[in-house]
Design goal:
D-Maltodextrin-Binding Protein, domain 2, 18% strand, 2 domains, 342 residues, alpha/beta, disordered N terminus, binds succinic acid, globular, 11 strands
Length: 342
């Protein structure tokens, strides 16, 4: 019998396999290099602008490593999604194409449910409460949540607390009914929007401005600094100050890359990261306050402040999300997060 010609599907599969092999080859040869061949390069990709909490933290990390470990390790930051979006950066990290990322905790949802605790609405009253939880044994355990995927969390960085932006003032949850909300790729955030009667749409950060501008989505949730730096306020007439959820990042490395580093370098990089984390988490609040002030000064959107009674309506409308995800997250983890504020 004559062998049949490969069809388009088979050719595509072969091409994909070839690309995968090339990627692996690049990964094996491109990182964790012996110091005698020049400095070890840490390519660090992220999606926000340099003047954001994450942008500032990444730049400081780069400056300190390049100064203190000169000739041995060199960090190269790729901000503003110039290299790739968050989803692709998680895959690129796993393949060893880049060595470090700081993706929003919400966006690891496709790999682990352990970070869902951070997305529960109104769980943390403020960033200090989040910090106490992240520093607790339960919080520190979460750094290892993706070790079965070859990814290791090194530290948490804050952005800030989230607010809603919309074409109308969202004083109470019923105002959100039937609005299309852009959300990050998280099932908890999806349920949160469903609970207020909205229509959630998962979407990459780089696509949000245009989606808001063209009306592909009506509304979104984010921190002041992201709303300002990504110019969402230009196309959203109302920003409602809810502080309804935490927005933070996990600084993540490829486990094999990390463990292959010479011990003394790993220890020095960890010490620099600890120093940067303290500095960055202190900065994040003031960067968000400054962003809010710049939005007010622009006159482009109105900031809506809520009364305690209105906030209580948001709290009770979104509370069912906790029950829905308690099994995934673990009641003990939710309790640990609730204990942290005391
Ligand atoms: C980020 O801050 O890294 C991205 C924000 C978003 O996706 O909304």
């Amino acid at each position: 019998m004559m062998a049949s010609k490969p069809g388009i599907k088979e050719l595509t599969r072969q091409a994909l396999r070839f690309v995968l092999l090339l990627t692996l080859l690049f990964a094996l040869t491109g990182c964790g290099r012996d110091e005698s061949n020049g400095p070890i390069v840490i390519k660090f990709s992220h999606v926000t602008a340099p003047a954001t909490p994450k942008g500032q933290a990444a730049d400081r990390f780069q400056a300190l490593v390049n100064e203190r470990l000169e000739g041995r390790v060199r960090v190269k930051i790729y901000p503003s999604g110039q290299l790739m979006n968050d989803d692709d950066s998680i895959d690129a990290l796993a393949f060893g194409e880049i060595q470090m990322i700081a993706v929003s905790l919400s966006k690891f949802d496709r790999l682990t449910h352990r970070f869902q605790v951070f997305d529960l609405p109104f769980l943390f009253p403020d960033l200090r409460a989040v910090e106490r939880f992240q520093g607790s044994p339960e919080g520190q355990q979460l750094l290892l949540a993706m070790s079965d995927r070859g990814l290791l969390g090194l530290t948490f960085w804050h952005n800030g607390m989230k607010q809603f932006s919309a074409p109308l003032p969202l004083r109470t949850p019923d105002a959100a009914k039937d609005l299309k909300f852009r959300i990050m790729e998280s099932d908890v955030l999806q349920e949160q929007i469903l609970q207020i009667g909205g229509n959630p749409q998962k979407m990459a950060f780089g696509e949000v401005y245009q989606a808001l501008q063209t009306g592909a989505v009506d509304a979104q949730e984010n921190t002041w600094s992201n709303i300002y730096s990504a110019k969402f306020y230009e196309v959203q007439p109302f920003l409602t100050e809810t502080n309804h959820g935490y927005f933070g990042y996990l600084v993540t490395v490829n486990s094999s890359f990390w463990t292959a580093l010479p011990d003394e370098l790993r220890v020095e990089i960890e010490a620099i990261l600890d120093e940067v984390t303290v500095w960055a988490n202190e900065q994040s609040a003031s960067i968000n306050i400054a962003a809010k002030e710049k939005i007010i000064a622009s006159g482009s959107s109105e900031i809506v402040s809520l009364s305690d009674a209105e906030l209580e309506q948001w709290r009770s409308a979104t509370r069912p999300v906790w029950n829905r995800f308690e099994k995934n997250i673990g009641a003990d983890m939710i309790e640990a997060a609730q204990r942290a504020p005391q």
